[in-house]
Design brief:
Blueprint (H helix, E strand, L loop, with lengths): L2 H18 L3 H21 L11 H32 L1 H6 L4 H31 L7 H26 L5 H4 L3 H9 L12 H8 L2 H13 L7 H28 L3 H15 L1
Length: 272
């Protein structure tokens, strides 16, 4: 992958990010789920995790931030891909040299920006609602490598999964396996309470390591297996970045103007 292609993808991603953040309805949509989370934190602010002195609000905030990143990187990536497939954006990208790789880089930049935005919307008011969060140089350093690496481990996977669906409505089905895997990854519930074989399954996915890393960054006394986190997330990112362009190119080869027109007609029929 040459530098010119990377720069083209980054430029495309910046343009898409700027466009979506100047759209009021988009911003409201991005802020809706974090706003609900902040409302929930208000009612949890005085509680503690059973059997410990850890603030339940702080634990829930960090866990929810991990969930927001997972949903943004995995499900939203698949939905954006499907929307671009329906409106012909992918077909146009197919017509340019290395267009699919540039498209993937651009979409990664845009989805990463949106995902980080949703977490900031939850974190900023959450800081004033709950106690027990840690903010120091270690927190900042952990976030600087953890969040980009976690997003890179999940977004190419979202693109691959999104290529399997032909409609945005169908991609909503991804929420079910995403929630199931998140449920066994220890984000909201201690993974040690699960059967041994299920713990192994949960630890094989990026969600577990993202949650572990965020807890070690924000919650005092939480252990962080940073080197293991880097290795696992790095392997997922490398595999996804290698696989996603191949899958997208194969999918794009099957695209045609007639297929795009047929999808538009079906979408209009559903609207009417």
């Amino acid at each position: 992958m040459n530098g010119r292609l990377i720069r083209t993808g980054l430029r495309r991603g910046w343009i898409e990010t700027r466009q979506t953040f100047t759209n009021t309805s988009d911003i409201i949509g991005y802020a809706f789920a974090p706003a609900l989370l902040v409302g929930l934190l208000f009612f949890l602010r005085g509680d503690t995790v059973p059997g410990s002195d850890l603030s339940l609000g702080a634990y829930s905030l960090v866990s929810s931030m991990a969930m927001l990143l997972v949903i943004g990187a995995l499900v939203s990536m698949a939905q954006y891909l499907t929307m671009d497939r329906e409106d012909g954006t992918l077909l146009r990208a197919k017509a340019t040299p290395n267009g699919m790789v540039g498209y993937l880089i651009g979409k990664i930049v845009m989805v990463a920006g949106v995902s980080v935005f949703t977490c900031v919307v939850a974190l900023v008011p959450g800081v004033f609602l709950v106690e027990g969060l840690r903010f120091d140089a270690g927190t900042a350093l952990t976030l600087l490598w953890l969040v980009p690496l976690a997003l890179l481990s999940l977004m190419p996977l979202g693109a691959v999964l999104g290529s399997l669906f032909e409609s945005v409505r169908a991609t909503a089905l991804l929420m079910l396996p995403a929630m199931a895997v998140t449920g066994i990854s220890g984000i909201f519930y201690p993974i040690s309470a699960l059967p041994g074989w299920l713990q192994g399954v949960g630890q094989s996915f990026p969600m577990y390591w993202l949650g572990l890393g965020l807890r070690s960054a924000f919650l005092p006394g939480e252990p962080g297996r940073h080197w293991q986190t880097i290795v696992v997330l790095g392997l997922w990112a490398a595999a996804g970045l290698a696989l996603a362009p191949v899958v997208l190119r194969r999918m794009a080869r099957r695209e045609s103007g007639s297929l795009v027109a047929a999808r538009r007609e079906r979408a209009m029929a559903r609207t009417l």
